[in-house]
User: What shape does this take?
Amino acid sequence: MVMFWIAVLIISTLLYVLLDGSDLGVGMLFGLTRDETRRATMISAVSSVWDGNETWLVVAGVLLWSAFPAVYATLFSAFYLPLLLMLAGLILRGVAFEYRHKAERTKWVWDAAFAGGSLAATFIQGLMVGALVQGLPVENGEYTGGEFGWFSPFAILCGIGLCLGYSLLGACWLVQKCEDDVREVAYRQIPVLAIGLLVFLVVVFVYALAENLRVMDRWVERPFLFVFPLVGMVTALVAARSVRLRRDSIPFVMVALIFAAAFGTLAISFWPYMIPFSITITEAAAPHSSLAFLFWFAGIIVFPLMLLYTTINLTVFRGKVRPNAGHY
Amino acid sequence: MDIGSTAILLARAQFAFTIGFHIILPAFSIGLANYLMVLEGLWLLTGRQVYMDVFQYWLKIFAVGFAMGVVSGLVMSYQFGTNWGAFADKAGPIVGPLMGYEVLTAFFLEAGFLGIMLFGRHRVGPYLHFAATCFVAIGTLISAFWILSANSWMQTPTGYKTSLDGRFLPDSWLHIIFNPSFPFRWVHMVIAAFLSVAFLVGAVGAYHLLRDRQNQAARTMFSMAMWMAAFVAPIQILAGDFHGLNTLEHQPAKVAALEGDWHAEPGQRLILLGWPNMGTEKTDFEVSIPHLGALILTHTWNGEIKGLADFPRDQRPPSPPIFVAFRVMVLLGVLMAAIGIAGLWKRYRGRLYYSNWLLRCMVIMGPAGFMALLSGWVVTEVGRQPYTVYGMLRTEESVSPIGLPGVATSLVAFAIVYFIVFGAGFFFLLRLMRHMPIVGEGGPPQGVPVRSAGLTPLPSLHPDPRHPTEPRPAE
Assistant: This one.
């Protein structure tokens, strides 16, 4: 039962990273251009799907509470200020979709909110992952680090890394969804972002070696973990080739696979801990009766349905978009 | 006041502030989604263009309101963990799964089909589009079901055991979900959402009728709203009465606080106005009617109810805000019913669209439903104090170990962000509602084969009689 819910949680988080990650990436790339037609096309590429995508974050948050209340309480108190900033970023990003169509004089405010909100939310998400890898001060299941216990250079580094990563996803999404110059610009951005991401990964690796982070021990103990970086490398090569050949639908899938591989690496490096090296999955789990109540309806019926809605939504809006196409 | 209790007070202020903003928006979504479903259904059924015009008009408004609701709801789902960690941990095994069900069964349904509802009308056929609208509308009702179940469980907890470390463990999910106050609260809230939106729609219709009596779309809005006011407002008063009796049974201190009663007396009087004084234990400046309180609350002439002074001081909710909010809610409810009855009379005389004073009253009453709804939530939530889980878990035992600086920072940040974001949002909503509804805004093309994605021609390239190429209303 616990394993079922941890799997659902992992799937939800991964889906969030892939789906909303690309929306946030498009948001950041949006900030790099001034051209109104390009901007309108970029917004159209995500406006019909972002709401469903962001919902996976709510799913992950609420599942964490329902199935692992101890982690929810500890983690959310620990990341009090970062979460606040992330929510503020997501709020600004979310309302900007609607507001920029309605605004007249203040359109630039919502354009800035769209790009800035995406950037802030992404940076914070990376930062929190970094802080988790570094290790949070937790004693007896209670967070003891104070307001800034999550702060470390490594966490900041991870924040920047995720910005690069999501932008890469976003660029691949644009290549898939757009035509003409938006697609061309995105194609030119992909190699730059990919190299940036590679440099980041090398730095992280060196840093982790230098600091002797506990995660590194796990890699030595569990050599099969190296399968994931290997998958990442193969997919990266396929992605590079498809970019050269301008095969629009391949890069997104490949970069998504790279993300999945990175995500899997993290999850298995932490296993069986939920908050690395202080709270394990079994310690964090809700009582069996709560998990079972969730399982018998939400777990086996509703969750597959949710995957179905997501598929329907993505299928209805498949294909290339135009600026403001089909705006109600 | 020491630092710890100031931090709790700020955390409560933050929760009250964020949920106060938030609750308006789901109510808006519940009411409007169902209204849109009715409109699109009527359009498919009768083929009358005016229904599609009104649908398109409110769809734009719905999109803005829904986006605001999603982001403010995101804050709520995280705030239990960030500020109320102890509550989240102790009540988590019960409230968590209920929230989980809300997100999985409802929130996702809404978010998943909203895209099709807003952007999909040229990509799917009219019936599929209607199905998407229905899913969104049903989603809002299911969402209300779970959220109100969770809230009601906090008001009247049943079906649980407590563990040694003070956690609430589920014993019977049936008793948890259908706890004693839940059915009353759910019905009262859903009707409140319908009425709030009916008055908003009616006010917008009335506003445009005052400028153009012949505007068909404005007439439809106003007429539908007046039917709601005439029949649903009285039903709501009845539902409120039942809810009150249920509260008297399970949370007598709340009823004493909202009545401003301090002592039980045979033939309890009904205090109309006054100011409950928590220090001296009496209600200052009171204006009251003998026996009426007994009549309303016990349905007998000489009945009595417990007063606040019959409860220990540390178990009393703070009476003044509850007392005031309750009077605001009741007054607005009665006014809404009165407008509804006046509308029936005007309709009977065939003057529904021509009565200046009725139209003006309706414009003024536009926000009345939302104000009444917010007041009602103040009554029920402040009335639950000093507990988070009524009678079981005190508010001061529910907070996270966050210091005063952290909570103060976040409160200020939320205040700023909310005022900018939601201030702008309400401004855009008002501006959308100021636009005169125009005829022929177009709908999903009926009878046109579903075009596959990617080939959708722009309306300007392919003139379609159903989609006049005239520009969209001044933007």
Notes: Residues 3-241+314-453 of chain B form one domain. Chain B is about 65% helix and 5% strand. Residues 20 and 374 of chain B are 7 Å apart (CA to CA).
